[in-house]
């Protein structure tokens, strides 16, 4: 693949017509907008006889790992959180590598080392289950870059190496932003992808604008903590209070991959664990994750932070249940009792019998008006997921 000056000029013309780019430049301080980066890249390209180094960055990153008992539940189903953590790791690798190598190669005057931070995961469906003893094969590739963000698509295959069979298990789209390694971190600019087809660029720009608007309008649920119900026999079974669970976790240095903040994959794994506890308490059967709704990460979680995950059921259909998990973070070392809501998400679980077949889910018993409102909103989301699934099946 080769960079062309025409591509950069097209990008310059496009972003010059976007006044919000200038406002974003002011917001992030020393960060440059894409137009200025393109000019520097244009000068750098004149000194390069080939773009082999950049082309290698566009090749997919492949990650493989054998699923062991610690990755699964008692029935052998690999936890959805385990898959999400692997997906985020693969995405982080290719996004971080692209930013650093491409920026250093093409824009050396503007280069500052950085790492990719997860800011958003699009709605993700677990297409096929994965089991202990199988190999998870993940392929990650960059599909779009804006002036300050990177879109990564990750495909997950489950391979039975004994039978020689492979099946599609998961596909996910993640958005990253490069941040400086200083404290506090600063938002950095991203070099544009080389040799982008105009149609592909236009489609990517639409996805970028859509997720940008949704992130700006997103508001976390203002849930009040429900009384823990671990040993309270007075709470009626199959109510929100009965299965609601709280999980607390101290973010250790080993979980932060050498950085000051926890990776998004670690947080998603804990969220899935919390939601799994809720689902198990409600059904008392084998439960598995089938989807994660679009999730926005609005606050970074520093290492050493105490995080509190609260999970509770919002809606049940005949064979599935929607569970919301909210994550609050508190930096205990600061000496100030300040808690921020870092992320919240809706996960869908199903109940399985001993043959791994879906069975009916006990219906949720509504106790008050607040729960009824959440249940009504959950039904709307359930219908939307159902429509999206049918549309996807029709296109395939």
Globally, the shape reads globular
Q: Structural class per helix/strand content?
A: alpha+beta
Q: What is the helix tally?
A: 9
Distance from N terminus to C terminus (CA atoms, Å) equals 30 Å
Average pLDDT, all residues: 84
Strand element count: 13
- Alpha-carbon Rg, integer: 22 Å
Order of helices and strands: HHHHEHEEEEEHHEHEEEEEEH
Which segments are poorly predicted (pLDDT under 50) over 5 or more consecutive residues?
1-50
Which strand order does the major sheet show? 2-6-3-8-12-9
Q: In which range does the helix fraction lie?
A: 25-40%
User: Biggest sheet, open or closed, and with what strands and sense?
Assistant: 6 strands, antiparallel, barrel
Percent strand: 25-35%
């Amino acid at each position: 693949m080769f960079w062309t000056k025409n591509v950069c000029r097209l990008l310059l013309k496009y972003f010059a017509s976007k006044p919000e780019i200038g406002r974003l430049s002011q917001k992030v301080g020393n960060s440059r907008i894409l137009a200025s980066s393109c000019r520097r890249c244009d000068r750098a390209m004149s000194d390069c006889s080939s773009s082999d180094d950049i082309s290698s960055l566009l090749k997919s990153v492949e990650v493989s790992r054998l699923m062991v008992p610690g990755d699964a539940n008692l029935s052998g189903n690999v936890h959805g959180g385990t898959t999400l953590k692997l997906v985020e790791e693969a995405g982080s690798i290719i996004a971080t590598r692209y930013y650093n190598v491409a920026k250093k190669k093409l824009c050396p005057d503007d280069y500052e080392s950085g790492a990719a931070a997860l800011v958003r995961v699009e709605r993700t469906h677990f297409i096929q289950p994965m089991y202990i003893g199988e190999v998870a094969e993940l392929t990650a590739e960059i599909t779009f870059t804006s002036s300050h963000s990177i879109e990564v698509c990750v495909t997950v295959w489950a391979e039975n190496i004994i039978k020689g069979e492979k099946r599609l298990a998961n596909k996910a789209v993640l958005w990253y932003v490069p941040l400086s390694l200083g404290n506090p971190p600063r938002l950095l600019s991203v070099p544009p992808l080389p040799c982008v087809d105009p149609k592909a660029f236009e489609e990517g720009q639409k996805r970028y604008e859509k997720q940008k608007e949704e992130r700006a309008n997103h508001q976390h649920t203002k849930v009040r903590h429900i009384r823990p119900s671990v040993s309270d026999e007075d709470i009626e079974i199959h109510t929100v209070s009965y299965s609601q669970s709280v999980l607390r976790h101290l973010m250790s240095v080993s979980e932060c991959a050498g950085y000051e903040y926890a990776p998004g994959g670690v947080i998603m794994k804990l969220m899935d664990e919390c939601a799994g506890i809720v689902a198990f308490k409600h059904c008392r059967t084998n439960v598995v994750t089938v989807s994660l709704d679009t999730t926005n990460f609005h606050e970074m979680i520093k290492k050493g932070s105490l995080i509190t995950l609260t999970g509770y059921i919002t809606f049940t259909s005949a064979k599935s249940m929607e569970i919301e998990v909210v994550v609050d973070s508190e930096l205990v070392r600061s000496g100030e009792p300040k808690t921020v809501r870092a992320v919240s998400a809706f996960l869908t679980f199903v109940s399985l019998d001993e043959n791994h077949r879906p069975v009916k889910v006990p219906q949720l018993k509504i106790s008050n008006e607040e729960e009824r409102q959440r249940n009504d909103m959950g039904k709307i989301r359930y219908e939307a997921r159902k429509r999206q699934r049918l549309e996807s099946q029709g296109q395939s």
